[in-house]
Amino acid sequence: MTKKISEWVNKNIKQKNPQHQHAPHKHHKKPFPNKDGGAKMRIIPLGGLEEVGKNITAIEYGNDIILIDCGMSFAGPDMLGVDYIVPDVTYLQQRKHKIRGIIFTHGHLDHIGAAQYVVPKLGNPPLYATKLTAGLLKNRLREFALDKHVKLHEYDERTTLKLGAFEVEFFRVNHSIPDGMGVFVKSPAGTLIHTGDFKFDHSPAIDKPADMQRIAQLGHRGIDVLLIDSTNAIKPGFCKSEKDIADTLEDIISKTKGRLIIASFSSLIGRINQIVNIASRHNRKVFLSGRSMIDNMKLAEDLGYTTYPKGTVRKIGPHAKSLPPSQTIILTTGAQGETLSALTRMAIGEHAHVKIQESDTVIISASPIPGNELAIVNVINNLYRQGAKVITNGDMDIHTSGHAHAEEIKLMHSLIKPRCYVPIHGELYMRMGHAEMMKNVAQSVTMLENNGDILEISKQQGIRKSKQKIPANDILVDGLGFGDIGSKVIQERKVMSTDGVLLLLFRAYEKTKRLVCEPNIISRGFVYVKESQTIASETKQVAKKAFEQVVQNNRNIELKELKRQLTLNINRFIRKRLGREPMIIPIIMYI
Ligand SMILES: [Zn+2]
Ligand SMILES: [Zn+2]
């Protein structure tokens, strides 16, 4: 199918897309127009295409590579003990001398959160970010003691970067964190636009509105490939504006008599700024709770991303109780029901400074990220139990997403009119839905990529998918080290968590390999042994027999092989007898 698409692109696209009658590539119809005619620009998404998170795209041309974003993703509940996931950069490590820079579109962790892992691996290439993103990035690198080794450059919407063979320009978009940018990249082989995470908001919280005029101008230059955010593509209509959300919040705040506790994302700096301004209009003081909320707002204040008077916001502490409830707003993290977050601790009565009272109103100004629903319900139940009233986005419009809905996506397409359209950022179902929707709208050819696929643009061959594939695995991090947890470890943790562990202790004479006594069983989390003496003694018998047989067949058997065969035998017995597969660990002591 891919081949068909690329043939179709090469044959038809120039005639079918009138926009490009005026575009530069019209002239490229001449065969081998210049020396560079043979070179290819390769677009390689190494993450962000089979998940929401871990966004990273490499763009390669000749001796130059640039990267757009370098994010992490959070581990799902099935990845026991894994804290987060970073992208596989093996391909880039082997070519680190070619890397001219990493460009960050905005400051969310799924776009900057793997920098501490990737940047040193690639020989500390220069980083490029807008002011706020650079601030967040600097804090992150400082946390990992890397800030002194890295050159971090700020850019804005007027910047043009020359990075090797690439020319890079930017355009403003809106998102749920200020200072989000889309990226235009030109190489001798062609052009591309990467939207970053985006939406269009005509009355955003603190940003300027997305620059449609600029986007259209870039589109007029002729864009070969558009890489475009899919996160909310299958949601109809337009995102609500931050202004509407602020109006609803102001309405609630003005009518509420008691104390207000508002939970949101700590990166929603624009919304938090609006809430603080509303609070001061209604004679309320704002207290911040949660480390990331406090850190982010301090950074936002220092860099000039807030409009409230300095000193309006304070960190939560014992002094918060000195004000009457009607004059207090507590802004907190924990809108996703995270186990250790401030809101969760309030809900179970374990927050050092906030005790939930009967007259409290809790507003959850966020919507659940898939997978977090149960945790949030739990927190809401606990808040009700403590006597609070809870308002969620289901009750009133107190949250809007940062990702374009269907109509905004169509608008972006019609401003750019690319030759080839590639849905990025999202699970397969989101990107498939996105592609399906564009069938009726776009004149461009839509291509679905996976992590590690390569899209090649050249003047001779047009745009096509390469047969080559780049490694793009999940690198798992458990807080202690990078990438030292393989999938086997996860598998073992799963086995232990579902079926428990069974330790079998064999004691035997070294010379004769005869057992000194019956094997001992120690079990953890494997219920049957404790409950049933019969099963315990049966298992012992099976273990004993297995040991004797294996040793009889080969007296000089290696320890590793002996253990393997014992595990196999005991495992087979327990699976047959109980339908369970606990982790079996044989321990052999020779005396
Ligand atoms: Zn984002
Ligand atoms: Zn994102």
What this model shows, in words?
The protein has 591 residues and is an alpha/beta fold. The protein is 33% helix and 22% strand. The protein has 17 helices and 28 strands. The strands form five sheets. Strands 8-7-6-3-2-1-22-23 form an eight-stranded mixed beta sheet. It has a seven-stranded mixed beta sheet with strand order 9-10-11-12-13-20-21. Strands 16-15-17-14-18-19 form a six-stranded parallel beta sheet, with helices on both faces. Helix 5 (131-143) crosses helix 9 (291-303). The longest helix has 21 residues, at 533-553. The radius of gyration is 29 Å and the shape is globular. The N and C termini lie far apart (66 Å).
Biggest β-sheet: strands ordered side by side in the sheet: 8-7-6-3-2-1-22-23
Share of residues in helices: 25-40%
For the termini, the CA-CA separation is 66 Å
Q: What Rg is obtained from the alpha carbons, in whole angstroms? A: 29 Å
Low-confidence stretches: 1-6, 8-37
Give average pLDDT, whole number: 89
Distinct ligands: zinc ion
The profile of the biggest β sheet is: 8 strands, mixed
Overall shape? globular
Q: How much of the polypeptide forms β-strand, as a percent range?
A: 15-25%
How many extended strands?
Answer: 28
